What we know:
The complex is a heterodimer.
Chain A: H1 8-15, H2 20-28, H3 32-35, H4 40-62, H5 71-87, H6 92-114, H7 119-139, H8 141-144, H9 169-190, H10 193-203, H11 207-210, H12 215-241, H13 251-264, H14 270-289, H15 294-308, H16 312-326
Chain B: E1 11-22, E2 25-36, E3 40-44, H1 51-59, E4 66-71, E5 74-75, H2 81-86, E6 89-91, H3 104-115, H4 130-142, H5 158-170, E7 176-180, H6 188-199, E8 206-210, H7 214-220, E9 223-228, E10 231-236, H8 238-243, H9 245-252
Parallel strand pairs in B: 3-8, 3-9, 6-7, 7-8
Antiparallel strand pairs in B: 1-2, 1-4, 4-5, 9-10
Helix pairs in contact in B: 3-4, 3-5, 5-6
Amino acid sequence: MADVPLTPRAYLQAQSRWTPVEIAFWLATLLPFWLLPDYLSLASQVAITALFALSLDILLGYAGVVSLGHAAFFGIGAYTAGLFSKFVWGAPLPGLLVAAIVSAASGFVVSLIVARFRHFTLIMLTLGIGLLMQEIANRAHWLTGGSDGLQGISINKVLGAFNFDLYGYTAYGYSLAVLFILFLCARRIVHSPFGLALRGIRENWTRMPAIGAPSRAHVRMAFTIAAAMAGIAGALLTQTTQSAALESISFGRSADVLVMLVLGGAGRLYGGLIGAAIFMVARDQFSGIAPQYWYFWIGLLLIGVVMFLPNGILGGLSALAARWRKS
Amino acid sequence: MEKVVTATPEIALSTRGLSKQFGSLAVTQDVTIDLPKGVRYALIGPNGAGKTTLINLITGMLKPDGGSILLGADDVTSLEPQQRVTRGLARTFQINTLFPSLNPLEAVTLAVAERRREAGEFWTSLSSHAESIEEAYGILARLKLGEVCYQPTRQLPYGRQRLLEIALALATRPKVLLLDEPAAGVPQEESGDIFEAVANLSNDLTLLFIEHDMHVVFRFASHIIVLVGGAIFTQGSPAEISADPRVREVYLGTRQHG
């Protein structure tokens, strides 16, 4: 097949075709239901965190926009879902939708400022906005419960049929389904003309205006989409754990998701998913051994990956696969 | 061929009293030029004469301290760079300013999609934009980049990268194209290919190019503007410029013995 010269259109079509590895990956996400039924709550957390990492990948991996405050939108989604269930309606799917709308709107407002800047200024701006949101959530005790967490969340059955059970069957099934649907959206986005424009912004910010591209408008759109996805991830956490805490909007979460994405490999959709799985499982295992010091191992892993695998674990694996295919 | 010499030529691009200071250094001083439609003008001058600065001012990458820029009849002085591109003013860069990990097909398709205002579409698949892709491939094929269009830009030979610079500019369908040393860094035997490509561009296109090689300038330019110290020193036809003893003194002197 490689010997037949492709037409330009067929070439671009081939770029977005599903590969067997991808299909195997998604089938494997179903395995915990049978193989690890005791770990479904953890699996649900992995799926939620993977969605959060995927949202950052659109910004960082594709548009090259670094954010150190991405948890702001995760937290906005988490609290919105909690408050919506408390005061309006406990149905999960409408809760997700409302959380997506509120976090997308917040993302758009923030993007009006951040899309004007690059590099160090941008990193500091997103860090500042993240810290700001964290303190607002802390001070607004009357609304968020502050450091006590949001009280009175009650979530109905998913689609009126699946109760959130103690073992996490519903939690994982629900989180996984939402992750998969949003992954399909993200996949569509990165293989769209807009996705190509984002890669153009990442590759050369100076050239973009010279080909007539409104880069700032593109970045605003990317920021809004990423904020909506992060907000949905936050809402999932609130709904599956029936709680919303300050941790969901903290700087720690912003830093963690960046680490996951870099570990897994940014700019390849699956990097965030793999990174989230490694990070969450490592945290679960290491913190069982030494709860205070588990970041030591994550730190070590991060240093190793950025030094020896500049494109992350997935980048290293695909380079290995390419070499194997050649020989 | 048959041009009506009596009528005033239609002006594609003009600057009026353009000036720019970097600190106390005047890099552009009261530059007024007119580019009639369809001409090929060369912009020459010694190093540091402000040639690239002038292109940056015209394209909006720098804001002038004074003066104005007109594209056709429209004053574009206050427009953003990308808005000027949308109105038909494109440029290439002296130092490659490309998209290293994109391949030429992706890069030029992106430029075409931006022009056709399709690049904001995140819900459609790129491969469904058949017209944009075909147009991009057509441009690449014209510049003999067709057979390398699936290779990442960073892996392309330098000369091909210079051609891709031009391809990206052409994808915006410019009326006026500013070429900043299109053959910079290319071995002399290959620079002919690049200017060949430039020469084959449509006759409607108005060109202004910076070039140091005088043989190339005299071969391709219909008119030459000499810039010295940020100001227009003189301008005229290639014959007039090569005969001007003052130009020889400031610029050609050491190079034109032979």
